[in-house]
Write a structure and sequence with these properties.
- By secondary structure, the chain is an alpha+beta fold.
- It contains ten helices and 20 strands.
- The strands form five sheets. Strands 4-3-12-7-8 form a five-stranded mixed sheet.
């Protein structure tokens, strides 16, 4: 019984640590909370293949799985410390401080870490230490009436004697009232229940208050987003050609909605940036005229609007981490030229543009690529509205033809010109390539794997992409036979994916369908299967179906 209650004490102490830390983080910043800080540290130190596995298997839920895992480990640790505090009250209670120390260290060592970020974990750890010490005291055995020492090693009160009667004076006991009586293992049950309930209630109240205060900051950012009216672009996107979207059942839409657009990043807490206070700094090597710009400054500039397909380097062959949207933003090359930047091909000293996010993420992009005439931009809008918070509000980078990890910095706040020799960005330090043009890829959307279509004419359809080159041809084959040319949908631009369809005269039985694409440079997808690390997957996508 006491062991179970001791484990419960540890859990309550852990709850107190988290809830108090949540409250303190409202005075610092939400990202300083211990679960977020520790989770971020885990992400930073996770090997690329493991991280890729998580993205592949858990998708957008990878961060939730990580947070649940951290909470589960914390619960086990808290219960173990709680049980230990029964025998070693002071040492067990002090052990809770380890949790606070780990959270504090993780917070300050994050890429965007500040000394103040350690405060929530430290205060939470101290409060948890006090809570556990209090509850462990309520669980300590009371003195036994015969003078034997209690389990906490303190001397006990001896029974009084009556010399006149020569008999021992005894007292009635009532365990339900929390007194020890003649039971040497008894403890203050009532006191424990009151203390545990009060600690749990106070902790929950602190946590709810902290959550509400943090939410108020997010509400201000949301309010700033609601007031934004995107200006009409000076260079609007041309109308999407007729026939670009084949509108087949099971086939991805040509334009991906904001809610369906993939999200792959390291942010456990999505930054909520107030557009009114946001600033962007452009500086570094070969920048004679550094710039500092507000969000309103960007909106007053000449804006462009383009349909551009983005792809994550973690996308396996046939994977879902690719999407097409209509972006509106400021041409990045124009800003760099205004700052006096020249590309390496024209004698500029910097060959890398390092973009920094408000959460400390760094992404390195070739200067030559963003200034070679492609529609690289600082995007402020997505599919006709201000950027959603999940996708980088208020400003993110978009560079056609490059995987996101070397181009698509979200929640942007800083652009620094440097060289690849002088600086390795976040992902480069973790075994990914410095430069990563998107590889030609294709995917079968319908029929789905293990589908059971009827024999006869079956539409096989999907999408293919080779941003900044365009798709020239798509071919499909069945069971390793001859390649059959697919019908291509109309092309919007070389920076967008392209739908395709092949009408298959299906026969009964199990069949394997494969697809490959050829870009406008004449390069055809290789059949060699390679994983995503270090610069993107290769191979032909295939599905197995059973035709009735």
């Amino acid at each position: 019984m006491r062991g179970a209650l001791a484990a419960l004490s540890g859990l309550i102490a852990g709850l107190a640590a988290l809830c108090v830390a949540e409250l303190v983080s409202a005075a610092v910043r939400p990202e300083a909370g211990p679960v977020t800080a520790v989770g971020g540290a885990v992400i930073d130190r996770t090997p690329a293949p493991v991280k890729d596995f998580a993205v592949r298997n858990f998708g957008n839920d990878d961060k939730l799985v990580l947070q649940l895992g951290i909470l589960a480990l914390l619960a086990l640790f808290a219960m173990a410390v709680g049980v230990a505090s029964l025998r070693y009250r002071k040492v067990g209670s002090a052990a809770v401080l380890v949790f606070g120390a780990i959270g504090a260290l993780a917070a300050v060592e994050r890429p965007d870490g500040r000394v103040s970020d350690a405060l929530p974990s430290i205060v939470g750890g101290l409060v948890a230490c006090g809570v556990l010490y209090l509850l462990a005291g309520r669980l300590a055995s009371r003195p036994s009436p015969d003078g034997d020492p209690g389990t906490d090693g303190t001397s006990t009160r001896t029974a009084e004697t009556d010399d006149t009667r020569g008999t021992e004076d005894t007292r009635d006991t009532d365990d339900t009232e929390g007194s020890a009586g003649s039971n040497p293992g008894a403890f203050d049950r009532r006191g424990f229940v009151i203390a545990a309930t009060a600690a749990a209630a106070a902790s929950a109240g602190a946590g709810l208050l902290g959550r509400r205060l943090n939410a108020s900051g997010a509400a201000e950012a949301a309010a700033s987003r609601r007031t934004i009216v995107l200006p009409a672009p000076s260079s609007p996107a041309p109308p999407i050609p007729a026939g670009t979207d084949l509108k087949l059942r099971g086939l991805s839409s040509f334009t991906t909605s904001n809610k369906d657009f993939y999200r792959v990043d390291t942010a456990l807490v999505v930054p909520r940036v107030d557009a009114d206070s946001w600033r962007l700094r452009i500086h570094g090597k070969g920048v004679p005229r550094p710039l500092t710009l507000s969000f309103r400054d960007l909106l007053r500039r000449q804006l462009i609007e383009r349909d551009i397909t983005l792809t994550c380097v973690s996308n396996e062959v046939g994977g879902p981490y690719v999407g097409n949207a209509r972006w509106i933003g400021v041409p990045l090359a124009d800003l760099l030229r205004e700052a006096g930047v020249e590309p390496p091909s024209k004698g500029g000293p910097a060959d890398q543009l390092v973009s920094r996010s408000v959460d400390g993420m760094t992404i390195g992009t070739p200067v030559e690529a963003v200034m070679d005439g492609r529609d690289a931009m600082l995007a402020v809008g997505m599919n006709g509205e201000p950027l959603p918070f999940n996708h980088g509000f208020p400003v993110r980078m978009v560079v056609p033809g490059l995987y996101g990890y070397v181009s698509a910095c979200k929640w942007l706040e800083d652009l620094e010109l440097t060289t690849f020799a002088d600086y390795d960005a976040y992902w480069v330090k973790r075994s990914w390539s410095r430069e990563a043009p998107i590889k030609t890829q294709s995917r079968i959307d319908t029929p789905r794997p293990f589908a059971s279509p009827k024999a006869g004419k079956v539409p096989v359809a999907g999408v293919a992409w080779a941003q900044h080159r365009g798709i020239e041809r798509v071919e499909v084959r069945v069971d390793g036979g001859d390649w059959n040319p697919a019908t291509l949908a109309a092309q919007d631009s070389e920076d967008t994916w392209r739908q395709w369809m092949w009408e298959w005269p299906a026969t009964s039985g199990s069949h394997t369908l494969e697809v490959r694409a050829t870009d406008r440079n004449g390069d055809t997808q290789t059949d060699k299967r390679v994983g995503t690390v270090p610069d993107g997957a290769t191979g032909w996508h295939s599905v197995v179906v059973a035709v009735d």
